[in-house]
Amino acid sequence: MTEKTRQLVNIITGQTTSDGAGVKLKRVISPQHKNAFDPFLLLDEFGSDEPADYLGGFPSHPHRGFETVTYMLKGAMLHRDHLGNEGHLRAGDVQWMTAAHGIIHSEMPEQENGLLHGFQLWINLPANEKMKPPHYQDIAAVTIPQLDLANGGTIKIIAGEYSSIQGAVQGVSTQPLYLDVSLSPQQSLTVPIDAQHTAVVYVYQGELVIDNKVLQAGQLGQLINGNVISIVTQTQSAQFLLLAALPLNEPVVQSGPFVMNTVEEIEQAFRDYRNGVLTLL
Ligand code: MN
Known about the structure:
By secondary structure, the chain is mainly beta. It has a single domain, classed as Jelly Rolls (Sandwich), CATH 2.60.120. It is built from 1 helix and 25 strands. It is globular, with a radius of gyration of 18 Å. The protein starts with 6 loop residues before the first strand and ends in a 7-residue tail after the last helix. The structure holds manganese (II) ion.
């Protein structure tokens, strides 16, 4: 198959905002992008050395119709749900939560040695999976395959496959690729990508170059038209997330914590939550 290198378009700079009980965060992909990154609905980067920026956390709240992927780089996140499940995500851990029919949970960030840094990604579910039972994949940091590159740098394969290495998370119907990549200065990386898949790169430290354009920390770029992604670094190192997945091409109606296909289904979700049956299967 001929190789075609993807172009960089739609550069977005994350916006500082707050959510939950006053948690300060950087919102990169948001509902205002109107599903331009289908199936990725939302991407938040949270991190602060100031406890006041996040101590309120995200108290009890519902979700229906999609998946949330929480990845901690530093610090911890205490998770509790309506079934009494409790989990403590620590540095490097991932929680892949398929909310589907309904989850009510709280997410409380905690510093470790004064540090907190992480990401939450929302991935849409196809219409025929939105009302299935919810489930979790809790991924401990040590079980995430890591590839050390020849001249420095590493790739953590959280989901999908890279260089014939299977990532920690499999079996998701949007076929997500979730890589956390660290490159040294003057390094290059190519990543094969399904030509049909949506692909984005989010730089969280340093800077890199794709398609002769610079992408800096706090910026996300979309990569279109091709089956390979080509990334280089110049004088700086770079740390970034590379995310790709199969677009659903279905109507999206999102209201707060619910993402469905129609207005009626959203109204049903609010009614179910009010009546205490959101999580009742
Ligand atoms: Mn949540």
